[in-house]
């Protein structure tokens, strides 16, 4: 019998999951073009219920423009626990000068010294998260 | 003028990218069902040019069975540098008892105490990676 009585997986509430997203600044954006999946790492800033990220014209921006439905994942891993949050939602590029000016006031900077002047906003339609108590696989005889 | 002369982004060769993948055990799998993207965190083991992961029957296994084309991302972030590798490829579930027995000898264990007895193998069709020297955004006047 195991001495580890922690549940291996705990479903997070939407509020709990969003708190993890707000405290994190790096995730991955997946989208689909012609039923083929693609994925990119992004750094983002979460505020007021949306995620904002910056990009330059290219595959990533083209992908979310062609198919605005995206899946996003962010996670964190420690030695004995981990969490992961998955957001489904839609993306749109900010195109009004007023909203771009507002976005420029946010603490969202590219991580590398390349210019990325386009802003994309991800509005969640669903958010789910799980917290993992890491541990060994169960003995099949105990199940 | 900036004093940081490191290139902000360095494209990795396939060999360099694969070395990062082999040294890492956690990534995210994206796939597309009905042109809608989905994404899951996975822990994996890379060996002999393929990635192996374990799963239980459910959305993840159903997704890669319905559309075997997947995109995979893994990354690592330090204070002043980061890397990310993206693999495109196809998935198949191991179904021969001989190959399942071989897979069971590999150091691939679920991270949580839930049973995951199905093995899925991801065979890359492309691999690309980037190394990032993290730093402040460039001054537009310097571009």
UniProtKB/TrEMBL annotation, chains A, B:
A Pfam cross-reference name: Pyridox_ox_2
Matching InterPro entries: Pyridox_Oxase-rel (IPR024747), Split_barrel_FMN-bd (IPR012349)
Name of the molecule in the record: Pyridoxamine 5'-phosphate oxidase family protein
